[in-house]
Here is the input.
Amino acid sequence: EEKTLAIIKPDGLLGNYTERIKNVIMDSGFSILRETITQLDEERASTFYAEHSSKSFFSSLIKYMTSGPVLVIVLQKKNAVADWRTVIGPTDAVKAKVTHPNSIRAMCGLDLEKNCVHGSDSLQSAQREISFFFGEISSG
Ligand code: ATP
Here is the structure.
């Protein structure tokens, strides 16, 4: 089985979407290995999104991700990384509402930035992101 990192971003938590998102998680066959609520500060958010540091939207992204607490979840299932990306839908929530109406981002996202959830984009990112929040976690 594979692990991936999901984050319910500040708009998702604030909008009380947690329960609905967790229902989708369970219905899609994931198990929740770990979860924690945390408030990112500028430094931690910038480290987490370091790959985007040169992008025009970086400062706005950091402001968004530090605007309130986030719920960080380690998900596990076979093919977890790709399957979670499918379940959350495309980055742009406006497009998601049209092309992937059953996706999580269609359900609770607002636009290209405020898209309510995160999912690791590769196995390597998943491992980096899981240890970023939880350190090395054991068991398979
Ligand atoms: P995530 O990494 O959060 O799962 P993603 O892989 O779909 O999302 P990335 O391209 O990695 O998207 O961008 C990371 C995050 O930065 C997006 O989820 C979104 O919140 C924000 N973002 C991406 N592109 C833009 C943009 N053009 N304008 C504003 N915000 C953006």
In short: The two ends are 7 Å apart (CA to CA). The chain has eight helices and four strands. The first helix runs from residue 10 to 14. The mean pLDDT is 97.
